[in-house]
Write a structure and sequence with these properties.
This protein is α+β, with helices and mostly antiparallel strands and about 270 residues long. The chain is built from nine helices and eight strands.
Length: about 270
Amino acid sequence: HYYITNNLRFTMEETVDSIDSDLGHADKKVKLTKSTIAMIERKRQNAILLRESRLQCRVTAVSSSSNSDSKASCKPSKNKIVICSKDSSDLTNLLSSVNCRECNIHCNASYLYEKFGENVCDECRAKDKDQFKLMSKTDAKNEFVLKDCDLDLREPLLKFSTAPNPHNQRAGFMKLYLLGQVYERACEVHGGDEGIDKAILQRSKNREVLAQQKMNQKLKELRKNSKPRQMKKAHVHEYGKEVYDEDNDEYSHCCKSCHYTETYEKL
């Protein structure tokens, strides 16, 4: 009994020592150097930037087909994935830090940078709403005398965001452009502020000419409708020589122009 008790005691002490030694090794493993901590922090920042960059990227699946002329399948392919970026920027540009041009703080995740590529943070945008104002496509065309092709087709293409139409909820989403970018496009199209002013004046003149033409057309139609109709003169018969019918004891004469014959009796 004594022998068995001592063996159990020695075995328990060895187990406790081994557990303490393992815990000591674990404590040693937890301790990290400054360079390792810095590397972990860099990787964490890169992971955050990658997660933010996914907001600007669109993943589309392309089905692999042997026949190039065949139509693309609607089902996504699990083998081949193409990543299309709206800005067509490299991964290095996405990972690079972008600072606000107003306050010089980090603005990779700001609304203006994601939607329009402007290095402006959300706080600066909230402070100066007039400078970073958004305008609809119709307002941009009316204010700066632009066409659809100037906004949608001219290179480089203007970036825009979509929003539901507040005037008609059943209508499609409307396009919102940044005021500063629309102004730069107008200067490019018209050749500066003077060109924009001339285009506005020319548009007002054209509108006046069209309004005058419409007014003249309405007056012409009104005069045409209100003009009195000419009354046709009644036909007057011009009878020829009188003819006597002895059998019926009647007289008759015929009109020279319409050949109308009138028959009558004499008392």
